[in-house]
């Protein structure tokens, strides 16, 4: 900003306006410098400044709960009514002569028995008439020299309990288990293909049957390099995937849910047109007889044969065509049929039918820097209007109607087209008004949430794991960490104890049977 030629000739109001503009520009510069410092710290493996906590708009617009205890005791008796008694002991007392026996006073004690249990399997061996040695097989669930109960304990403590490997090793040795650190790591990452497949199928089931999903990402370390962990989920499932980047192409690859193909179909062509790809490039891809490509190498060879790799135009034809082929693959496999993706306005998540988080939108106003009483009054008035509007959006979700929809759309325009005289606030309101379709997606799809709080809550386990255990060193370790954390979160959402789930999958005798999680997710999503 250039200073005026004659400062002495400015009026008091003009000087005040000039100072305010300079303060706003200085604040923007400070914010940019802080962001660069955070990025430098992150690249060095550190952590940047913590974000300011959200304003609490969502909690503040919820109806206040009643007083504690007003609803009375829950049906079904107390806590002890849910317990199975494994042992009864009679405790005697020396009563004086002439006392009368009046029965027993029951006192329930819950305890836990942890001790090593070593089994020697004497496997019969027979020599058949043709000279073949026949050895009896091990019972189901026995895989290696450590039994399924120990495997369950290790998996539960590491993934759900967030216990580090050194502490887990010390704990096992304190119990009397003779085991090395290498074997503990092997119990965590070896022979986990069934769990990895179920985690992948959980994602496929969610993407193919859910009416909506929320997404979020956070930093992650893998092979001593910075990366990103993306969360995808809804009320019935959660899935995590760690990759080296967070661009839109990477997000589309995650949405393929394990499929590796690239497809040019009607959805891919529509995507290319939406992203303003040159029409002659679209024609080359759409009119070619080859429309499906098995892997990245086949897709790259196809682009090279069509001469698209050498094109130097804007937008990048290779980038847009690849994203379109990924989107075509997603649709070809029946994923995201009419699913709304709710995000925090990060650009890579803006694909398909998209909606924005109101909490993140209002947080921009909450974090806005103010310099005068007039600025603070304008900010306070706008935030109050948005809070009331958000509360009414919640009410609309419970009882949608055409009349209320029209009223809310008109109110949105009135709020976000206001001119307060606070330049930074007015710019922010204009920016939010440009996102009207995505912020008001709930008016056409009342079942979707108004925020991404679910994803933020889910991804905390990844943040905790990153803080206490650092990064992963192998691809197998990364995949197992993501898969088991996702399975544990999914079990919690489905009302299944992760301990019971592990017992069922590890074929531990006497454990309750747990159905295949993707089947439960499809049923829950279909029933709403």
Structure description:
- There is one protein chain.
- It is built from 20 helices and nine strands.
- With 528 residues, the protein is of the alpha/beta class.
- Among the domains are: 184 residues, no CATH class; 86 residues, no CATH class.
- The strands form three sheets. It has a five-stranded mixed beta sheet, with helices on both faces.
- Helix 7 runs parallel beside helix 11.
- The longest helix has 32 residues.
- The radius of gyration is 30 Å and the shape is globular.
- It starts with 11 loop residues before the first helix and ends with a helix.
Poorly predicted runs are none
> What value does the Rg take, in angstroms?
30 Å
Q: What is the string of SSEs from the N terminus onward?
A: HHEEHHHHEEEHEHHEHHEEHHHHHHHHH
Summed over residues and divided by their number, the pLDDT gives a mean of 89
The CA-CA distance between the termini, in Å, is 55 Å
Which secondary-structure class do the elements indicate?
alpha/beta
Question: Which strands sit side by side, in order, in the main sheet?
Answer: 5-4-3-8-9
Number of β-strand runs: 9
Helix coverage percent of residues?
40-55%
């Amino acid at each position: 900003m250039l200073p005026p030629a004659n400062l002495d000739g400015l009026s008091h109001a003009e000087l005040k306006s000039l100072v305010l503009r300079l303060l706003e520009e200085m604040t923007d510069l400070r914010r940019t410098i802080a962001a660069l410092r955070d990025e430098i710290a992150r690249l060095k493996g550190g952590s940047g400044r913590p974000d300011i906590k959200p304003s609490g708009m969502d909690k503040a617009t919820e109806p206040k709960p009643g007083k504690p205890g007003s609803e009375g005791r829950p049906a079904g008796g107390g806590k002890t009514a849910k317990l199975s008694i494994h042992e009864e002991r009679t405790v005697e007392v020396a009563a004086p002569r002439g006392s009368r026996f009046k029965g027993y006073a029951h006192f329930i004690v819950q305890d836990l028995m942890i001790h090593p249990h070593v089994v020697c399997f004497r496997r019969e061996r027979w020599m058949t008439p043709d000279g073949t040695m026949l050895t009896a097989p091990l019972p189901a669930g026995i895989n290696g020299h450590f039994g399924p109960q120990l495997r369950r304990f290790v998996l539960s403590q590491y993934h759900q309990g967030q216990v580090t490997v050194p502490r887990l090793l010390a704990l096992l040795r304190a119990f009397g288990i003779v085991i090395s650190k290498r074997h503990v790591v092997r119990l965590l990452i070896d022979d986990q293909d069934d769990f990895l497949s179920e985690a992948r199928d959980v994602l496929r089931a969610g993407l193919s049957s859910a009416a909506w999903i929320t997404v979020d990402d956070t930093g992650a370390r893998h092979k001593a390099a910075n990366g990103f962990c993306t969360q995808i989920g809804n009320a019935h499932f959660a899935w995590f995937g760690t990759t080296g980047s967070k661009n839109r192409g990477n997000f589309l690859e995650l949405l393929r849910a394990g499929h590796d193909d690239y497809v040019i179909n009607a959805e891919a062509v529509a995507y290319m047109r939406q992203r303003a790809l040159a029409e002659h490039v679209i024609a080359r891809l759409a009119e070619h007889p080859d429309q499906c490509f098995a892997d990245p190498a086949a897709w790259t060879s196809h682009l090279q044969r069509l001469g698209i790799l050498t094109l130097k135009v804007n937008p990048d034809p290779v980038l847009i065509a690849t994203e379109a082929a990924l989107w075509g693959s997603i649709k070809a496999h029946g994923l995201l049929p009419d699913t709304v993706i709710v995000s925090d306005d990060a650009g890579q998540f803006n694909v398909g039918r998209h909606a924005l988080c109101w909490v993140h939108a209002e947080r921009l106003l909450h974090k806005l820097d103010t310099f005068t009483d007039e600025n603070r009054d304008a900010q306070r008035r706008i935030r109050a209007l948005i809070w009331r509007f958000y509360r009414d959006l919640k009410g609309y979700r419970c009882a949608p109607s055409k009349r209320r929809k029209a009223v809310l759309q008109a109110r949105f325009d009135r709020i976000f087209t206001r001119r307060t005289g606070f330049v930074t606030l007015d710019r922010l309101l204009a920016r939010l008004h440009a996102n009207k379709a995505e912020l008001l997606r709930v008016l056409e799809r009342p079942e979707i949430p108004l925020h991404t709080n679910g994803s933020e809550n889910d991804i905390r386990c990844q943040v905790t794991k990153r803080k206490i255990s650092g990064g992963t060193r192998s691809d197998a370790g990364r995949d197992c960490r993501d898969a088991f954390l996702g399975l544990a979160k999914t079990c919690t959402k489905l009302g299944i104890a992760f301990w019971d789930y592990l017992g069922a999958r590890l074929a531990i005798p006497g454990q309750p049977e747990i159905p295949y999680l993707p089947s439960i997710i499809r049923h829950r999503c279909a029933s709403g």
